[in-house]
Amino acid sequence: MGVLVSVRGWLECDDRQLARIKEIIGSEDRDRTYSGGWGFPARQYNFATWVFFGAQMRAGSLDWFRGQLGRVARIPASDEDGDLVTGLFLVSHDVEGMGEWQVRDGAVVTGPASGRYRYLDA
After folding, report:
1. Tell me: the pLDDT tens digits for 74-120?
2. Which of 22, 51, 66, 104 sits at 20 to 30 Å (Cα–Cα) from 32?
3. Any idea what DSSP says for residue 83?
4. Those residues with Cβ within 8 angstroms of residue 102's Cβ, 6 or more apart along the chain or in another chain
């Protein structure tokens, strides 16, 4: 069956950035093999807008997903505040263990996940 990877996390953005995120996600993976893991709450509250993701995918699709996140991370700020899309994803690889992907500063910054998240690998 191959190596599986569990990916779960979220993005924080504004309404204009949300529209662009939906465009990026909608333009790829038309069969919704893994893009169906994205969740958009029907109602957002106050000033932040949230997008969630959760899926278990084949390891061979991980580069595709990271590329998609990279395109999302590069969405420019919508207003004079200069706020970019931010987020955090935990990536649990059956072979390589758990990693942490931070969406910040216009990029996806990857590294090992803190040991406090090991319970999620069980």
Report:
1. 999 998 889 999 999 999 988 888 999 999 999 999 999 988 888 88
2. 104
3. P
4. 87, 88, 89, 108, 109, 110, 111
